[in-house]
Specification:
- By secondary structure, the chain is mostly helical.
- It has a single domain, classed as Growth Hormone, Chain: A, CATH 1.20.1250.
- It has seven helices and two strands.
- The chain has a two-stranded antiparallel sheet with strand order 1-2.
- Helix 3 runs antiparallel to helix 6 and helix 5 packs antiparallel against helix 7.
- The longest helix is centred in the last third of the chain and has 27 residues.
- It is globular.
- The termini are far apart.
- Its main location: secreted.
- Pfam families: EPO_TPO (PF00758).
Length: 176
Amino acid sequence: SPPGLLLLTSFLLHVEEGRASPTRLVCDNRLIQKYIGEAKDMEKKAGQCQALPALSCPTVLPLVDFSLQQWKSKSNETKRREILCDLALLVGAVAAAQGQVTQECGARQLSQLYQHANSFLLLLQTFSWEAGPWEPGCSPRSMEQTHITSIFLTYRQLVQGKLRFFFHDLAKDLCK
């Protein structure tokens, strides 16, 4: 079964009538640790693929570094929207890279990464706050890259950084 399916299934099992409840996902710290571990594993496996070519057409990746102090001053909705922007750009970058990579090992890792990143994107789109549904059209800080491994690095940094801190912040409110 695709790894992204597990994320989506674990989420759907905890949906309240009418609106998404991120409670289990954010209250059970083992889940985010599992996703961080999977991100590290995908990055490692992609690095082990033999002779990964540089992308002939550079892909645009979000810059996912952040200042913890600035991050803490943002509302949860602002954080969610920022992560959604990063994920949308990342999913697009993975899809673009998939079209350029024919090598089996690299293609397999990109497919897995696409499933994981897209699952988080769908998941965060369903979290409902006062601001209403998410609409694309944001423009996060970004950079062009030709190295496939940088896509995996960006995903790991996003999960390990913004996403983990976002879940931690949500847990303060939801997991009393």
